[in-house]
Q: What sequence folds into this?
């Protein structure tokens, strides 16, 4: 593979922005990118100070999509905030459901039956696939691979969303998991359909690999760009593929072994350089590992009930206490922190959104890079504004 | 060689482009208004109210218990309870909703109302072409448009509907048996009381027949229910929160 790293990107002068605007001798230019800019993945704004094309200072501005999620959840019943969790990271509603259900189950002492645990693993790994192919499509779109890779990615994603629709009733806003299990059982023939989709999936990954992974332009645009050093990644509490691309072996599926993840053997892909290319490749490799988990789960899924008999739909009041449920979402550690005072509503409801916390390292990654690279770096963090702003 | 990756990628694009002319399964889209993908059985769009029989006003399963109104996350359901009980299609006295509105511009199709309903009265529709001219009043759907017959429910969600019907029939049988047992017990008790009264009033036989007509009234609701079709629900208890 050709190494066309930007060698000069490391040498960055330290600028101080003296004045805002154009008066004086300053030739720094302040640009407000967004919130309607198409490359910012939603309503996100970057206040960038530029010296020529180089980024000197970058301030992420968000909150345009704030919907008061936490306060709403504190004023509704536990069950009624389940559909709102779909709308946090709207590309992976099923993993959001799982994290929230996990927190409430810890609070109420519920144990999902075997079959429900397997269904959860299957749906969560399928969600990881959809999220990663979406991200890769968008990332390439940001780089200027206009349309084609994104459409290929969406074609494949649509197959998985069809599976979600026939299981949960909705393509994206699934609202599927319940406290102590899942809402409905798998429809007949669903597992066979899933196996078919999964059998076609490696072919798609190969096709995508041929299409783009060895592409010289991709390599030139991504290698050595937006480096997040290992120490900084840990200090900024980045999680998920962003952290692992910097070489830190931290996957909550391995560390915490929530659900039944201790029954599956899979590898955790790690990057070396922490640049955009590594973040891209970590996700591609993660999809390969997810396929392995899915195959094993479909093979092993037992028959049986799907909901803990102790779980209640109406009049659900967990006893007073607090709980933190976390999962390895496709974007990183997604956690829900709940305090119950014994009433039907949570006393405190807090989301730990991976997108927001990974975003805090954006400025450090972008300094000294060109403005066009800032767009790719943002794309490689994989943010969804529904989750950043909540 | 520099550029091989590019050429490889282009070849892949060309393969996909040419392939769509020859292979049917490479075409992944349909020409929408003329051609439609069939809706999945589990699909859901917006809620509707189920009624039994032919008359929507009479056969509405909803008893306006207002649980869905309370549980609805975006608060899009508005119910006003009727002040008087009216006989439903089985002749049983029930509260019916005077107003039952769903604002579909607010509804987020989450299905929580369906899950919490103890009477299987509200279900999810699969209709998705909901464009209207008005922004407010046209998207506020009233009871009359919401009410759909049980046959429609069977058409869109056959498995679910069959399950609900079986459950309701079982509940109805149980309720009937209970009503019958209650009625019999009451008749027996009344007869015993009458006998006791008659025994006590042997000295004055003219007033002994007075309590006799009483047992006929509590047995009345069970009688019309038994002549109705067996697959219809018997709603007998008020909405007590219960475990599913």
A:
């Amino acid at each position: 593979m050709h190494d066309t790293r930007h060698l000069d990107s490391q040498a960055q002068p330290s600028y101080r922005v003296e004045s805002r605007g154009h008066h004086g001798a300053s030739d720094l230019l302040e640009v407000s990118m967004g919130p309607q800019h198409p490359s910012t993945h939603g309503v996100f704004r970057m206040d960038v100070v530029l010296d020529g094309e180089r980024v000197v200072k970058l301030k992420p501005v968000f909150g345009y999509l704030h919907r008061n999620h936490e306060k709403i959840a504190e004023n509704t019943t536990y069950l009624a905030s389940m559909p709102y969790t779909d709308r946090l990271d709207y590309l992976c509603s099923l993993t959001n459901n799982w994290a929230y259900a996990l927190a409430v189950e810890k609070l109420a002492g519920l144990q999902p039956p075997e079959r429900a645990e397997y269904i959860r693993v299957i749906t969560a790994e399928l969600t990881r696939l959809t999220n990663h192919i979406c991200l890769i499509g968008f990332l390439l779109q940001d780089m200027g691979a206009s349309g084609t890779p994104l459409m290929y990615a969406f074609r494949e994603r649509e197959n998985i969303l069809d599976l979600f629709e026939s299981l949960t009733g909705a393509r994206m806003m699934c609202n599927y998991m319940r406290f102590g299990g899942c809402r409905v059982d798998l429809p007949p023939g669903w597992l066979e359909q899933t196996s078919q989709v999964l059998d076609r999936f490696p072919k798609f990954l190969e096709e995508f690999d041929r299409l783009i992974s060895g592409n010289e332009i991709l390599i030139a645009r991504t290698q050595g760009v937006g480096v997040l050093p290992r120490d900084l990644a840990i200090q900024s509490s980045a999680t998920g593929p962003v952290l692992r691309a910097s070489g830190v072996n931290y996957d909550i599926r391995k560390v915490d072994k929530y659900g039944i993840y201790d029954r599956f053997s899979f590898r955790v892909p790690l990057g070396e350089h922490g640049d955009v290319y590594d973040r891209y490749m970590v996700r591609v490799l993660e999809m390969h590992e997810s396929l392995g988990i899915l195959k094993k789960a479909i093979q092993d899924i037992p028959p049986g009930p799907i909901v803990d008999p102790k779980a209640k739909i109406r009049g659900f009041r967990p006893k007073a206490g607090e709980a933190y449920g976390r999962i390895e979402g496709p974007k990183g550690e997604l956690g829900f922190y709940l305090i119950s005072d014994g009433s039907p509503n949570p006393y405190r409801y807090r989301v730990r959104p991976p997108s927001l916390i990974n975003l805090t390292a954006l400025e450090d990654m972008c300094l000294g890079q060109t403005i066009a690279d800032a767009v790719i770096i943002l794309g490689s963090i994989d943010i969804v504004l529904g989750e950043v702003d909540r | 060689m520099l550029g091989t990756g590019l050429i490889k990628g282009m070849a892949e694009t060309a393969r996909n482009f040419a392939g769509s002319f020859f292979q049917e399964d490479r075409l992944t889209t349909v020409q929408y208004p003329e051609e439609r993908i069939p809706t999945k059985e589990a699909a859901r769009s917006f809620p509707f109210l189920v009624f039994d029989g032919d008359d929507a006003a009479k056969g509405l399963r909803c008893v306006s218990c207002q649980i869905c109104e309370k549980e609805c996350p975006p608060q899009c359901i508005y119910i006003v309870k009727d002040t008087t009980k009216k006989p439903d299609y089985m002749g049983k006295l029930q509260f019916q909703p005077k107003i039952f509105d769903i604002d579909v511009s607010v509804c987020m199709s989450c299905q929580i109302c369906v899950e919490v309903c103890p009477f299987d009265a509200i279900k999810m529709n699969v209709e998705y072409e909901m464009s209207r001219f008005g922004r407010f009043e046209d998207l506020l759907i009233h009871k009359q448009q919401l009410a759909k017959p049980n046959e429609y429910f069977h058409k869109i969600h056959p498995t679910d509907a069959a399950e609900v019907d079986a459950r309701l029939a079982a509940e109805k049988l149980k309720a009937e048996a209970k009503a019958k047992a209650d009625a019999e017990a009451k008749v027996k008790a009344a007869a015993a009381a009458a006998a006791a009264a008659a025994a006590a009033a042997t000295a004055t036989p003219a007033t002994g027949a007075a309590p006799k007509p009483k047992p006929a009234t509590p047995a009345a609701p069970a009688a019309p229910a038994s002549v109705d079709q067996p697959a219809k629900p018997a709603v007998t208890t008020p909405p007590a929160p219960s475990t599913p």
